[in-house]
Design goal:
Order of helices and strands: HEHEHEHHEHEHEHEHEEHHEH
Number of helices: 12
CATH architecture of the largest domain: 3-Layer(aba) Sandwich
Low-confidence stretches: 18-26
Shape: globular
Strand content: 15-25%
Helix content: 40-55%
Structural class: alpha/beta
Mean pLDDT: 90
CATH topology of the largest domain: D-Maltodextrin-Binding Protein, domain 2
Length: 327
C-alpha cells in the first residue's frame, strides 16, 4: 500500500508539472511583440512600405510588429544586427537586393554572410527603374538613344548615385546589352545626379521610378524605357527595355522580409504565410502604386530562393565584368 501511495504521489506530481509547463510549451507563435529592423531612415519609400507592412502583420499575427529604423553603411549595420539576433522569429529584417545580393559581392570587409546568416522568407515589392535622358538628346526611345550613342562613342555620360549602387550596376547591365560606350559620372545622391541630367552634364540615367517620375511628368527629363518585365501603370506609354529591342532585359531593386537562418521552420512558415496574406490584400497592393512600388504575388520558399539566386547571378556577372570592388 505504501508503495502504491508513493507511485500515485510521483504520478500526480508529474501530471501537475506537465500541466504547469503545458501552456508555455503549447503557446502559439508569436506570443509577444515582433521587431522589424529597417535599414533606412524614416520617410522614404522603403520605410513607408515597412510601416504599412508592420501594421498589417500585427493584425495577422495578433501581436504588435514594431519598426526599428537602423540606417547606415549601405544597410550593413542593420543586417549585421539581425544576423546576430536570437533566431526565434521575433526579429525580422527588411531585406533588399542591396543587403542580400550586392553588398556581399561588392564589399571586401563585411560582417555577415547573406547566404549563410539569412533566410529570405518573402520578396514583398519591387522598385522598378526607369531609363531617363536629358531633353536635348535627340532621342525619344531607347533604340534611338542607342543609335545616337553609337555614333559618339565615349562622348556621352551617364549619372548614378555612386559606385556599386544598384542604379550604376543597372546602367552597366544596360550598356553591356546595348553595346553603347558612355562614361560613368557618380554623384552623392539622387538630387545632384538628376540635376546633372537636367543641366546636360550627363545625358542618361537609370533611376528609381519614384524620384524621376515627378520630373518626367513636368517634362524636365524624358523617359525612354522601364526596366521591368511589363509596362508600369504610372507610365503606361513608356515601353520596357525588352520591348525596345533588347529582349529578356530586366532590372529592379526589391524589398522583402528575412530572418536569421537558424530561425525554426515552424516560425518561419507562420511569418511567411502572414506576409503572403498581407501581400494578397488589394488595398495593400494599390497603396504603393503612386510610389512606384510593385507589390509582388506571394511566392513559396523554393520560388523565393530561386528569385534571390537569379538576382545574385545577374548582378554578379555585372560586378565581375566591371571589376567593381568597394572597401
Amino acid at each position: 500500500m505504501l508503495k502504491m501511495n508513493r507511485w500515485l504521489g510521483r504520478t500526480a506530481a508529474a501530471v501537475l508539472a506537465c500541466a504547469a509547463i503545458a501552456p508555455q510549451a503549447l503557446a502559439a507563435f508569436p506570443d509577444r511583440p515582433v521587431k522589424l529592423v529597417v535599414p533606412y531612415t524614416p520617410g522614404g519609400a522603403a520605410d513607408q512600405l515597412s510601416r504599412v507592412l508592420a501594421e498589417r502583420l500585427s493584425r495577422e499575427l495578433g501581436q504588435p510588429v514594431v519598426v526599428e529604423n537602423k540606417p547606415g553603411a549601405n544597410t550593413m549595420i542593420a543586417a549585421t544586427q539581425v544576423a546576430r539576433a536570437q533566431p526565434d522569429g521575433y526579429t525580422l529584417f527588411l531585406a533588399s537586393n542591396a543587403s542580400m545580393v550586392l553588398n556581399p559581392m561588392l564589399y571586401q570587409k563585411i560582417a555577415y554572410d547573406a547566404a549563410r546568416d539569412f533566410r529570405v522568407l518573402s520578396v514583398v515589392a519591387e522598385l522598378p527603374l526607369v531609363v531617363v535622358a536629358n531633353n536635348a538628346v535627340p532621342a525619344t526611345t531607347l533604340a534611338q538613344f542607342v543609335s545616337y550613342a553609337k555614333t559618339r562613342p565615349g562622348k556621352l555620360n551617364y549619372a548614378s548615385v555612386g559606385i556599386g549602387n544598384p542604379l550604376q550596376l543597372a546602367t552597366e547591365l544596360l550598356k553591356s546589352r546595348t553595346g553603347v560606350d558612355i562614361a560613368h559620372i557618380p554623384y552623392n545622391g539622387s538630387a545632384p545626379a538628376l540635376s546633372s541630367l537636367m543641366a546636360n552634364d550627363t545625358q542618361l540615367m537609370v533611376d528609381v521610378i519614384s524620384t524621376s517620375l515627378p520630373l518626367v511628368k513636368e517634362n524636365k527629363i524624358k523617359a525612354l524605357a522601364v526596366t521591368t518585365a511589363e509596362r508600369l501603370p504610372v507610365l503606361p506609354d513608356v515601353p520596357t527595355v525588352a520591348e525596345s529591342g533588347f529582349p529578356g532585359f530586366r532590372a529592379a531593386t526589391w524589398f522583402g522580409i528575412a530572418v536569421p537562418q537558424a530561425t525554426p521552420a515552424a516560425e518561419g512558415r507562420a511569418l511567411q504565410e502572414a506576409v503572403a496574406r498581407v501581400m494578397a490584400q488589394p488595398d495593400f497592393r494599390e497603396r504603393f502604386q503612386t510610389l512606384g512600388l510593385v507589390i509582388q504575388a506571394p511566392r513559396d520558399q523554393a520560388e523565393t530562393d530561386r528569385y534571390v539566386a537569379e538576382d545574385r547571378e545577374r548582378w554578379g556577372a555585372v560586378i565581375q565584368a566591371n571589376h567593381i570592388k568597394l572597401d
